[in-house]
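Field reference: sequence -> structure
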Amino acid sequence: MIEIVAEEAFHPYSNRFFEEMGMSQTSFLEDYMYIIPNQALPYSDWGDGVWQQYPTMTSTYGEGFLFTTLDDQLRYEQLVQRAKADNNALLLASQQPIPNSEKESYGFGLELGEWNHYPAVHHAGGTGSYGSQVIRFPEEGLSIFVISSNSRVWTGGLADEIAQLLLEEKKVEIAYDDKLCMIQEAPLVNSFLGQYYSADKRLVRVEAGEGDTLNWLRDNRSPIALIKEAENLYHTSYDKQVKIGFYDNELALLYPSGEADIYNRVDIGAPTSADFERFVGQYYNAELDVHFKLYMKDEKLMLALDGWKNPKPVEVFNKVDLLVRSYKMKVERDAFDRVVAIYLSYSRALNIRFAKEGKS
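Structure field:
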């Protein structure tokens, strides 16, 4: 789109664009093999404790593959804040909703709304093990920018902690969902620990933490501590106003705005030894022409994939949900309870079906 409008190749145009803004250390990489001086290399342990570098090999650019420095990014934030005084029409427009769009909470790659009850412009980004979070508070003249080359670091959480340190807590009208009263008046739940599904079948786990704390876990992300507030009621460690309540076989995530996310306790049953044997086999996706293999070793389920030097252990949460590093896997069974396929999701790639070669 930029090439069509500018009538110029993308890389020369974008390089000049950044140079004119005084951002000499910022550019879209034209070839992944080019050397970047002083580059922070991306890495992660993907939850298995083995730290490895994440190779970034791609020929795309525009939606990502932009390399910058903290100095350059802070320079950009200053330009955005001064855009009105400088009469910079392009930067001003970039912070607004798209004209004539029905959606006002999203603009040109930016979320427009609130952050900790302050008007804010924000967005997260990530490619491989690189991650970032930017939050702009226009009325406060404040921008927070966090970048990381370790995918195990939650840049959004760090940005939120910084925002809470720099901004006073805003008094807002609190209006929790009626579920809060039900939870406070309900009999004590025997155990909160377990696995829960959201309405769209996302799995979260609640595990015991230290003392009276619980841990909320999603995929292999770092656990979020839940602090006990009352019987059946906790709040998250990052925001006392975000409540977690337990009622019957439900978990309710309650926001002061009145919004509520309801999770139902998983009643699938723990996997048996027969289930583990049913997982074992070769799986194939014809569109990608990719095979992977599940097998048992020392009473653990392992996954081997072409291109991986070593097989990886599989976390088996129940008969349906598996996790390998950051790869979420959903098991499909037939009427005879035989495993026929596994749906793999990773980041924005959702529900890629790998059929089992032979059924067991």
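Note: The longest helix spans residues 70-81.
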